[in-house]
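During the second year of the project, the team shifted from modelling isolated chains to modelling whole assemblies. The rationale, set out in the original proposal, was that interfaces cannot be judged from single-chain predictions alone. As a representative example for this report, we include one of the complexes processed in the last quarter. Its constituent sequences, exactly as entered into the pipeline, are reproduced here:
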Amino acid sequence: MRSRRLAIGAGKMLAVAAIVVWSLFPIGFIVLSSFKPGREIFAVPPELFFEPTFEHYASLWHRWPAFFDGLVNSLVITTGATALAVMASLLAGFAYSRYRGVRFLEGSVMFLIGSRLIPPIVVTLPLFPVVNRLGLNDTHLVLILLYATFFVSLGTLLMRTFIDQVPRELDEAAVLDGARPLTILVKIILPLVAPGMLAVAVFVVVFAWNEFLFAYIFTANHAKTAPLVLSEMISSIDGVDWGVLFAASTVQLLPVLVFVVLMNRFLVAGLTAGATKG
Amino acid sequence: MPLHMTRRALLTTAMAAGATGALGRLAHAQVKTLNVLCHRVHQANLTTGAAGNVIKPWEDKNDAQISWTTLDSNPLQDRLFREASLSETDFNVGYVIDNRMTSQIASLFEPLDDLRKAEPIEDFDDIAEGLRQSMTVGGKLVGVPVRHATQGLFYNEELLQEAGISAPPNTLEELVEQAKKLTFTSRSGTPVVGMILASDLAVFPVMFARAFGGDFIDKQFKVVPDPEAMEKGLSVLADLFKAGALPRSYATTRNDDMVTWMQQGRAAFAVLPFARYAQLNNKEQSTAPGKIKAIEFPGSKTLSSGHEMHPVVESWAMAIPANSTDKKLSWSYIRFVASKAATLDMARNGNGPVRTSTYAEPSFAGSLPQAKVEAAALAKARPAFPAFPEAARAQSTFLEEVQLAVLGRKSPKEAVAAIVDRVKPLMPA
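Output from the structure prediction step:
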């Protein structure tokens, strides 16, 4: 019996180890390769021990200034989209949680879920001439609006679940003291659902930081994001400088990785929100 | 110390500051902006390299600034065609690949004949004929060629020597023989394949068919005009794969793998554009810098004397979206970039020059070891297939059948018959 339990435990450990290696290998390969001399990156047999070099990072800095402009644009757009999506989700989540029974609201929940089912490419191309006509092409604003819009539905559902967990008695006590809905939201509910807002923020940050399709369709120069510049490095004309590409990928990966690690517990809270609700 | 200022002095200072600001804005407004949508390589060839900033004199003369928007090839074409289909676009000049210029796409761009008549391009006939033809649609010139990538045969001289081969092949049969001999483990312990070819581009099987005088789709849109030649070409590829002289991973091999394998000494031969010479020999990336050389892709010894091997060329041209503004300025830019002097300077900055005269310039030919070979190949080169609306589907259908033949799942004869059957309905009426 004991040996069977040991075998099952070992099997589980092996399975976890395999999944971890499977998931981390590409990231590890990219990060390590960014410090390898160019000719050793794809050497056969692979060079496991090498003298680290920063030459690819230096090349990235000198040859691809557009990448760093792209990072700044990504930062502006991600910050804007996250703030907008979190605010809109909070307000909508509050309405859905506290004003149940309103016919229009009940019906619109289906619309929220439905909007998540539409593939982005379906709305992207018809939107191009409209965005162009509005003069929003190649602006930060268009991506902020699109990213926020794309995530408000999920964010709203998450926030509703978080707000549902705040006892209504607190609202009722505040109403007795003369508080209006906005005061209740800001002074009572917001501090209690801050972890939920952070969970929504994590989802939006990860999406907005890495998004390619909308950025590719709606930007050209001024609002070009880092993933677009990365795609340009995989050039079909003059080839790929893999070392520089891996260095850029590492730089692109780092901020979001740090952010997700720091916010990990909120992310888990977001994923399991409402899971134990009766 | 307190600052004393009279009301009059304050007013005068404010007016002077306002006037200075307004003048500054006026001066700024006079500088015109030309929005160019291109690949990063096009921008780099015009602005950086041995010849320096080539476009600066044009900017100074026209009091204009260029605003570059760069994307990789396919996204660039998508963006350009999307912009050109709007009621108006900010992009004044766009760079187009030759095999995209179908009659529908051509209608989105300004016909250039009248502009050319009014202000001619210097010695226009000096630009390679095949490239000019690919930009002439329905008898109208819609683009001015600016860059070409002609395919050549690259070989690793070090590996050839190691295998006791003294000279690169003169015929396709010699190439096959050498590729098989070069499928070995090199002295450094690296397993070497005789040849590496990407399986996702029509260029390579087309080169092998042309080595026997065949083709995929000819200028008259005839599919596989010589089936026997195509069968021979596919048989050679299948034979190389069977002998292990093409990588086992042939079906998933991409263009970038070819460069990497050549740089790592893992392949002895590859078919790549001559323009890749510098990258293949880059001492920071290559294990054999200076040892990777290029020749023209050899034809079969059975190729009759009246026929010659036509290597595949892909070219880029500059075009003016019909819905853009300030076409005069756009044409002025195109004329300047297409001039002999700018073509030479861009070539010195790494561009594949479209003028045959550029290859004869000592300042260029002396710096490029393969200049003579490349010039000879360019003179005979033709696109892999002509532009037509269903070209992408035709190419993927063709490649599907080619892969089946190379991997031995179909006989070359069956594959060629299937190519004809499946691609014919996609041809323009």
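The interface with chain A takes residues 37, 39-41, 67-75, 79, 82, 86, 149, 189-191, 255-256, 259-260, 263-264, 266, 275-276, 279, 282, 284-287, 350 of chain B (CB under 8 Å). The first strand of chain B starts at residue 32 and ends at 38.
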